Amino acid sequence: MDPSQPPEKTLGPRLNLPDNFGSLLQNPYPTPHSFSPSASASALSQNYQSNVSSSVPGSAPGTVAPKVAIPRLPPTDVSHGRRRSARACEPCRQRKIKCDGLRPSCSQCIYHHQQCAYEDVKRVRDQKRLGSLAKRVEAYESLLRDLEGEVDLETARKIRRIMKNPGKPLPKNDDGSDSDSSMGSLEAIDQVDEDLNRSEGTRAAGFFGKNSEIQWMRKLDVGTSMQNPDSAASFYFGSNQDAPFAQQPQLGRVNSTSMMDYHLDNLDIPLIEPCNPLAVPSRKLADRYIHAFLTYVHPTFGAIRLTTFISQYQMFFENASSPPVKWLAILNMIFAIGCRYTRLVDGPDSSDDDLIFLTRARHLGLHSKVLFEHTDLQQIQLELLVAIYLLCLGQVNRASKFSNMALRSALSLGINLRLTDNRTQDAAKEARGRLWWSIYSIEHLITSMTGRASCVGEGVCSVPPPLPCEEDNFSQPGVQHLFQDPNLRDSQLTSTLFESSTQFNSQAWISTCAPCPSLFFNFLVDLNLITHALMNKVYSIEGLRKGPSQIEYHVSKFGTRMDRWLDKIPPFYQFTSPEAGPWHLNHSKLHDLSATFVRESVCLAMSYYSARIALCRPCLTHIHTQSSQPRSPETSGTPRAQFRADTATQCLQASSAMISILPETPNMSWLARTAPWWGVLHFLMQATTALLLCLSYCSYTRTKNSRSPDPTPGSPALLANYPPLQETDLSTAIASAKKAMHWLHVTASVDPAARRAFMLCEGIVKRIAPGLDIDLRDWPDGNGFAEAIRASRSSSGNGNDYGNGNGNGKGYGYEGNGSGIGRESGMEAFEELIDFEGGVF
């Protein structure tokens, strides 16, 4: 330092600057050299040691200072304050509070005791939703494929179209909607077009609905009475009005229902007085009546429990004991029904004691005091037997009254429900169940005859179907298992109406049962369930309001059920030729009185074809249209039109099959021993009326075409959607109608109801014959019946031509012999009577 210069004042300790500090000031950014890790580390170490040694006080130059521990750096992941979660749970999201994102449950959910759940991200959510929708679409497509065979034809076609072209919408006006199509005479809701309380005759006849052959005959009478072709066209092809009776002003008159009713309700049933209610016939005559009832009525109307009644009957005659009055009333009604059968077999000169038995039963169990008492099982049996007897007399309206009484009484005691009381014996439970099915069957029969609203449906009862075995076999292990396990019984004896395709395809236990009256009864009840459900769905007001599409669906559905029922018939009861379809009957078996189980086969055949006629009848005259536009050729060839044409053809086939059950030559002995004689007239008139409906249309169209060979596009002939008949089919229909008329004519000689039915049909045949060039010279003639019919209609209670044909009859109108053909497809139950000590079942 220069001594002349004053010393520099410093503010702190002197800094030791490196020797090259000046060069660094001159060149603050030197040119970088290549980096050498070893050289850099060595230089750093030397520099560090020199700095440390120089900075330690008291240390000698060149000595190494001791090592000093360097504190560790704090962790870099330590956060200051609350950390934010990437995704909050759903409860915190909904409450809009902070979520710490802990799994499986965040702190907030643990504190509030809530279930913690984290939603997937949107991409994952969309993938899961697409997978769920794809599975749902597959399930829907599988369901549609299953439903395709169960729904009506038009809906099935829509299903096929939408599955074939999923992206193509269906047209709005697809092949004829409900608004421009109809079901013939069923398009209008039931109405009463006359005052039924006007006279005694109208009150006796009562109301007849659309599914009654009485209304079919009335429709025929209106159509064939129209001499004006325009009026006839309006009748056959419809108008914008609801019913064919809208033509009343043009016709001038329309026969009332009572004039078209061939039943005998307008005739009084007299009391035979004086009468001893406790009197009984001789043992020989009583045995004959009991045998007739048990052989020809009991298998289809088993209102009694057979084993118990036989023991009581023998005890009554052998011990001369005094049974209760209701038991005697039931016994007298059995005598009355058996007596009606013997009159049918023996002819008009046989005994007419059935009125005496009826009078005794009225004194014992049907007097005014009993009607105000609470009902019991014996009263139900008595009311059911009276209804059966009135059917045998042709008194359908009165039979309906007693059937309804028995039905309401049964409902009041819960006989329509499954009995689970362990104190009641299994045989007694079965007897009560069969009593219910008997009431159900007779109610169904009367409903089909009168067309009135039914009081029962398939969902009103839970009692199982009747067992297909006799009471003597109830102690067998297999039958005991059915009694003890209701689920097993339901699975083995599922009704055809309710069974699934899997149950139908599986081997049914009932197919292994031996032939017996109980098995026959089971098949009749099974068919009645199907037919009664059909009546409630197709002919009811509710069914008509749903439109023709629903009607067609139900026709197809119940037709399938009937086909299944027919396939289940065992070989010994079959009435069709094997593998030949439902329209080819085994006539050699049905017409042979010596054939085994011929009676069961005939009864099943008549009940089946009666159900088929009722099923297909809505499509027989679907020629009414509310549309003023003519149908195009494309519309007439649609699946709906084809379905209706096929169903109408099946109606004619069923009618012809019904007539073909009867032998070619009328035989009253065959009728009494094989057919359900209380219901033959109903079955015969069902088929005959359907055939005459077809022939009347054919007669009109031929007459119309002969007058107008080239009808205009808007003429009714082209508006018709009726299945055209080939010449062979027309010949078959005419031959079947002719055979039916012969049977009606022969039956009319012994039954006033058949006599009235023949006269009604003959009048229609004479009106339609000219249009079809039918030669009526070999057809039966009813000129001799006219006077008898007028006499029977004017007879009153003080005459009683009841039926021995001797001129001094008792006023019932049976001038011929009074065989009493009634009607019934038959199915009844076994029922136990009260024993002499007062026990019930």
What structural keywords apply?
DNA-binding transcription factor activity, RNA polymerase II-specific, metal-binding, 53% helix, Zn2-C6_fun-type_DNA-bd_sf, 841 residues, mainly alpha, disordered C terminus, CD2-Gal4, nucleus, Zn(2)-C6 fungal-type domain-containing protein
Blueprint (SSEs and pairs):
Blueprint: H1 21-26, H2 37-55, H3 90-95, H4 107-112, H5 122-147, H6 153-164, H7 200-205, H8 213-224, H9 229-237, H10 248-251, H11 257-260, H12 283-296, H13 306-319, H14 325-346, H15 354-365, H16 368-371, H17 377-393, H18 396-412, H19 426-450, H20 477-484, H21 486-492, H22 501-505, H23 517-539, H24 541-545, H25 548-568, H26 587-590, H27 598-616, H28 633-636, H29 639-661, H30 668-674, H31 680-707, H32 716-719, H33 727-748, H34 752-772, H35 786-794
Helix pairs in contact: 5-6, 8-31, 8-34, 12-14, 14-15, 14-17, 17-18, 17-19, 18-19, 19-23, 20-21, 23-25, 23-27, 25-27, 27-29, 27-31, 29-31, 29-33, 31-33, 31-34, 33-34, 34-35
Domain Zn(2)-C6 fungal-type: 88-118
Biased composition (Low complexity): 34-56
Protein name: Zn(2)-C6 fungal-type domain-containing protein
Strand count, sense and barrel status of the largest sheet are: none
Give the helix/strand class: mainly alpha
Mean pLDDT: 77
Helix content: 40-55%
**Into which percentage range does the β-strand content fall?**
under 5%
What's the helix count? 35
- Taking the alpha carbons of the first and last residues, their distance comes to 147 Å
**Mind telling me the C-alpha Rg?**
46 Å
Query: Which parts are unreliable, with pLDDT below 50 for 5 consecutive residues or more?
Result: 8-13, 37-41, 52-56, 173-186, 227-252, 622-635, 710-722, 796-841
Quick one: overall form? globular
Number of strands: 0
Protein name: Zn(2)-C6 fungal-type domain-containing protein
Biased composition (Low complexity): 34-56
Keywords: Coiled coil, DNA-binding, Metal-binding, Nucleus, Transcription, Transcription regulation
Region (Disordered): 1-82, 162-184
